[in-house]
Amino acid sequence: MSNSIFAQTNLKPLSLTTGVFLALALTACTSTETTMAVSAIDKHCVAHAQKMSEHAEYSQSPAQHLGAANAMQHCIANPLPANLSDKDSEQIMQVMAISVLSYLKAGDMNGAAAQFRRFDTQFPAQDLYLPDFTSFRDTATALLAGASLQPQILASLNISRNLRLEIERQQYWLTH
Asked: Of 20, 36, 78, 87, which has the fewest Cβ atoms less than 10 A away?
């Protein structure tokens, strides 16, 4: 033992000091946690997706509507943070609504239905109003259900007159 660099008496204080130092260093590392604010919506992504949607509207291309809808869907965090501000909630609802309508214009009923279910799950008691003061929620329901809507339910939906007449026309020709 005399060949050892550390004598037996010096080894214990050194290991005790090292152990205490490591314990303090490790607790200091784990106790200082920084929280980063998670953004619920990527505003640059939304601006790009809106330009895509405007171009799809101009060109009336189903493929471009589908691309715009997919782009908008990816601009929203999934899952959404728990505590959203009213402004963030409204922006997210608008992006989701535009995404649903873009899927419908592209002819992707499954994509529209999935995005509408997400809207319904995230914002169950909320709605948006279209420029003609009709309900987005009712309009999406009517467009997704189409001619399978019961006349009583169709009559209770806050949808445009033209949409109501078109659905009634479809129902008539499917039954006659």
From this structure: 36
Buried b (16+ CB within 10 A) or exposed e, 107-141: ebeebbbebbebbeebbeeeebeeeeebbbbbbbb
Q: pLDDT tens across 2-35, in order?
A: 454 444 444 454 454 444 444 444 444 444 444 4
Q: How far is CA 62 from CA 5, 51, 110, 131, 155, in A?
A: 79, 15, 15, 23, 30
Dist. CA 18–CA 89, nearest whole Å: 52
Compute the distance between CA of residue 161 and CA of residue 111 in angstroms, rounded to an integer.
25
pTM of the full predicted structure? 0.73
* Residue 131 pLDDT > 60: yes
Cα 53 versus chain centre, distance: 17
CA distance 136 to 86: 18
| Contact of 104 with 143, CB cutoff 8 Å | yes
Cα–Cα distance measured from residue 43 to residue 56, given in angstroms and rounded to the nearest whole number: 20
**At residue 141, what is the residue type?**
T
